[in-house]
Amino acid sequence: MATIKQYPEHIPVLRDAFVDAMLSDPDGRYVDCTFGRGGHSRALLARLSDKGRLLAFDRDPEAVAAGKQLAQEDGRFSILHSDFARLGAGLESEGWEQVSGIGFDLGVSSPQVDNAIRGFSFRQDGPLDMRMDTENGQPLSQMLEHVSERELVDVLRSFGDERYARRIAAAILKAFRSSKLNSTADLENICFHAVPKQARFGKTHPATRTFQALRIWVNGEMDQIDAGIRAAMAHLQPGGKLAVISFHSGEDRRIRDLIEAQVHACVCPPEMPICMCGKQPTMRWLQKKPLRADDMELAANPRSRSSMLRVAQRLTADEAKKLAGYSGGLH
Fold this sequence. Notes:
By secondary structure, the protein is α/β, with parallel strands linked by helices. It folds into 2 domains: 15-110 and 221-324, Rossmann fold (3-Layer(aba) Sandwich); 134-218, Orthogonal Bundle (DNA polymerase, domain 1). 41% of the residues lie in helices and 15% in strands. It contains 14 helices and 7 strands. The protein has helices at residues 15-22, 39-45, 61-73, 87-93, 110-114, 140-143, 149-160, 165-177, 184-194, 208-218, 221-235, 249-263, 295-300, 317-324; strands at 29-32, 53-58, 77-81, 99-105, 236-246, 283-291, 308-314. A 7-stranded mixed β-sheet has the order 3-2-1-4-5-7-6, sandwiched between helices. Helix 3 (61-73) links the parallel strand 2 and strand 3.
């Protein structure tokens, strides 16, 4: 049997809370939509029975290779090389119409950040890539060839909440078009000098939000979230649970709104005493206010500081009918 490579440097955030949120039946079928290096998957497998099954997705070839090693060790586990936007098709290919729990740990994993050649980190010099799937899509260097300054400003504001988006976008494109932006070290330096002097030495490095926004843009992560969360809610069995960890306020808002649209499905005006639109709720909140890492986890894993966990549950048919008669659904 193959030796399983371990990744001690990768500490999965909110591990126990995430597994607790997903798990309802040790004999059930579960999905880890973001395998990474398997921290959450291994923790979930440890709590499943011999009958339980876990299917993982990841679009990073290195993550898939790690997952295939785990599959050799544990027959209850399997992995697909796919982004979670194709979650529905992946589940159908496995013959899994409904599952007991689905989890997402969004963003970039520690091994990806720590590998300079992937281009995710401003702390190490690497190529302008940032692709989650190194076998598909365009790296950052190619995407910058076609973007306008206005579009780049919108990327930095929408995906990074960057206060100085206009200044940074202008500096990035000026340097890129004059062949002075060729690596992540160049990009970090440009971000640092583009912000006002008083903003260069705060708690957060001036390049942090820009690197985050560009990664989300390169990988189409917001569209991925839309497709993945909708598919997840559609494939949960009654009583099945959805757990999502995010690290960015824009991601978190998107997740909240997608789930909320199924919790409060009714679109009737608030003044109507009963629902007339006929839209029934399909989900309930179990953890609407995001759960965050406690002090103990923050001390052990500083990268968990921005993590946010939301949890929802698929309603049973009886629960949905009971709530459908009231405008606004479940309040």
